Automatic annotation (TrEMBL):
This is UbiH/UbiF family hydroxylase. It comes from the Bacteria. Keywords: FAD, Flavoprotein, Monooxygenase, Oxidoreductase. Belongs to the UbiH/COQ6 family. Pathway: Cofactor biosynthesis; ubiquinone biosynthesis.
Length: 400
């Protein structure tokens, strides 16, 4: 009789979401195999490194602390004390409305802590290497899934087969596991792309994350530690697709001129401090967040535009929910009852957040001047109502 190496949990996907899921379940005492077809790129300037950043919000930090990860990240994490929204949608590209959402209004902690994605992967991989309960196999992907009543068998790309009680699909928006289980998704496109890169600037960011709205999508500056002795920020610049690709192809001097116009130089003249990368912008959600012996998390379950630091934090909320269910009844992880509870708890919130971010993104794309004027008036009105302002901040953090 053929035998298979067995685990409590197999995590398909070695991005930030998959690696953090492996750490979370492993720290709770479950045996975990994590696989990913690509080796992790863990150096800032290496080809293929992910130059985007992630703001880990308060609930996400609690999960990473529980998994034993935060001690590795704390020294590099930049606290986000203020979320600043600037409307620059007037006739001239300059700030006309500026509103600050201040963390101290609702909490004694920052909204979140910003970290580069490449650094997150580096520290996550290093942490997993020291965990006896977790096996991480880069360069090995999921080639097939056979789900049975009491376990799932996962055929791997190196020809081996592993068995688990729960398969966690954290393998991206084109998830091979989701496709193998024939779980449908709905996708919404915007005709946008996002440029992601790092900059330095003469003025300190003072732990303020800033979204500047004009048209095409927000231009977002997120605090980073100093780089080569100068204040530094990560930039996500969303634009209509053809314009994004035009910007991507510009010589460096012309690109810097364009980004300085778009940034309104609120931190002084920006200097490009990394290579540029470009990412497609979509919303996507799975019809159901589970299949036989399988839970979908992160971009296998939901994709949103990079607005309001929701992407990875929604993924960490998926993991929090799954982990709580697994710890409450470890003998029945992966059972239909557990997976149905997971879907009932997470899916309505996921749909609500996808809809909310979709609305924010469409608003940020507005190009007609009267509509941009309405957007500025709406920002003023929402900010002026203190209870509404506080509720929006609490909802953004995922507070209950």
């Amino acid at each position: 009789m053929t035998t298979f190496q067995s685990y409590d949990i197999i995590v398909s996907g070695g991005g930030v979401a998959g690696l953090s899921a492996a750490a979370a379940f492993g720290s709770a005492g479950f045996t975990v195999l994590c696989v990913d077809p690509q080796p992790p790129v863990t150096e800032r300037d290496a080809e293929g490194s992910d130059l985007r950043t992630t703001a880990i919000l308060q609930p996400g930090r609690l999960l990473l602390e529980e998994a034993g990860l935060w001690a590795r990240l704390d020294a590099e994490a930049m606290p986000l004390e203020i979320m600043r929204i600037i409307d620059a949608g007037g006739e001239v590209a300059e700030p006309r409305v500026t509103k600050d959402f201040v963390a101290s209004e609702i909490s004694d902690q920052p909204f979140g802590w910003n970290l580069p994605n490449w650094l997150l992967r580096r520290e996550l991989v290093a942490h997993l290497q020291g965990m006896e309960t977790v096996t991480f196999r880069p360069r090995v992907g999921t080639a097939g899934v056979l789900a049975r009543t009491d376990h799932a068998r996962v055929r791997l790309s190196d020809g081996t087969v592993a068995q688990c009680r729960l398969l966690v699909a954290a393998d991206g928006r084109n998830s091979p596991v989701r496709k193998a289980l024939n779980i449908p998704v709905k996708t919404r496109t915007y005709g946008q792309k996002a440029l992601a890169f790092a900059v330095t600037h003469p003025l300190p960011h003072e732990n303020v994350s800033t979204e500047i709205h004009r048209s095409g999508g927000p231009f977002t500056l997120v605090p980073l530690p100093d780089y080569q002795g100068r204040p530094s920020s990560a930039v996500v610049w969303m634009e209509d697709g053809p314009e994004a690709m035009r910007l991507m192809a510009l010589p460096e001097a012309e690109f810097e001129a364009a980004m300085n116009e778009r940034s309104c130089q609120i931190l002084g003249p920006l200097t490009l401090a990394s290579r540029r990368t470009v990412w497609p912008i979509i919303s996507q959600w799975a019809d159901t967040m589970y299949g036989a012996r399988t839970a979908l998390v992160a971009e296998a379950a939901h994709v949103v535009p990079p607005i309001g630091a929701q992407g990875l934090n929604m993924s960490l909320a998926d993991q929090r929910c799954l982990l709580d269910l697994a710890k409450a009844d470890p003998a029945n992880i992966g059972s239909p009852e557990m997976l149905q509870r997971y879907h009932r708890r997470r899916h309505p919130e996921v749909l609500a957040r996808v809809a909310g971010i979709d609305l924010l993104n469409r608003t940020s794309q507005l190009s007609a001047q009267p509509l941009r004027d309405l957007r500025a008036a709406g920002l003023n009105a929402l900010y002026s109502l203190a209870p509404v302002r506080k509720t929006l901040m609490q909802l953004g953090l995922g507070m209950r």
